[in-house]
């Protein structure tokens, strides 16, 4: 698979240089979907940008989403007529935008779409993610038709989790690519 067809979808505030998404991008040449506003993300703007990038890849894409990026995948899939251009999605540490602490800042992201994704997906959830409880993540996996992977107690599965290049995640991505 062409590395440019693997689309990195960071969450709110982007993924910094030590985040596994950034390390994968550097190491493997995956394509980051750049958003025009990482600090005040508007769902409609992010959906339109993802649509543009998916259409431009010229090959079936694989989405690699973190946090708000997971919500982007669900929202995009619920609106796009081009979901057939996506082979699969790795959804890591979904950010629960309906949490009381996030709802005021990410108001345009509610309600969270809860229909099955029209492509294969794996959702990876942490037991102690401050942005999404494990039971809530399980509910997203069921609603989206995703395979659920329990990552254990590793926080928000980001740079602060100390995962480095996160080989386990790369293994899950490889499973999706080769399925």
Descriptive notes:
With about 180 residues, the chain is an alpha/beta fold. The protein has one domain: 3-Layer(aba) Sandwich (Rossmann fold), CATH 3.40.50.1820. It has 5 helices and 6 strands. A 6-stranded parallel beta sheet has the order 2-1-3-4-5-6, with helices on both faces. Strand 1, helix 1 and strand 2 form a beta-alpha-beta unit. Helix 2 crosses helix 3. It is globular and about 40 Å long. It starts with 5 loop residues before the first strand and ends with a helix. The mean pLDDT is about 95.
Strand content: 15-25%
Mean pLDDT: 97
Percent helix range: 25-40%
Q: Cα distance, first to last residue?
A: 12 Å
Instruction: Summarize the main sheet.
Output: 6 strands, parallel
CATH homologous superfamily identity = Alpha/Beta hydrolase fold, catalytic domain
Helix-strand pattern, N to C? EHEHEHEEHEH
Using the CA coordinates, give the radius of gyration. Answer: 14 Å
* CATH C-level category: Alpha Beta
> What spatial form do the alpha-carbon principal axes imply?
globular
How many H/I helical runs? 5
How many domains? The number is 1
CATH topology-level fold name: Rossmann fold
Low-pLDDT residue intervals, each spanning 5 or more residues: none
- What would you say the CATH architecture is? 3-Layer(aba) Sandwich
């Amino acid at each position: 698979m062409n590395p440019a067809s693997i689309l990195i979808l960071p969450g709110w505030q982007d993924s910094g240089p030590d985040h596994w998404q950034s390390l994968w991008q550097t190491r493997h040449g995956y394509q980051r979907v750049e958003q025009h506003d990482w600090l005040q993300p508007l769902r409609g703007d992010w959906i339109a940008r993802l649509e543009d990038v998916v259409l431009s890849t010229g090959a079936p894409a694989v989405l690699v989403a973190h946090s708000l990026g997971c919500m982007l995948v669900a929202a995009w899939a619920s609106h796009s007529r081009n979901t057939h251009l996506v082979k699969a999605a790795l959804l890591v540490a979904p950010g629960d935008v309906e949490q009381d602490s996030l709802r005021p800042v990410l108001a345009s992201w509610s309600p969270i779409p809860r229909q099955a994704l029209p492509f294969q997906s794996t959702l990876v959830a942490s037991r102690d993610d401050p942005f999404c409880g494990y039971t809530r993540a399980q509910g997203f996996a069921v609603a989206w038709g995703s395979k659920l992977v329990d990552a254990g107690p590793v926080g928000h599965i980001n740079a602060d989790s100390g995962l480095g290049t996160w080989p386990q995640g790369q293994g899950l991505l490889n499973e999706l690519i080769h399925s």
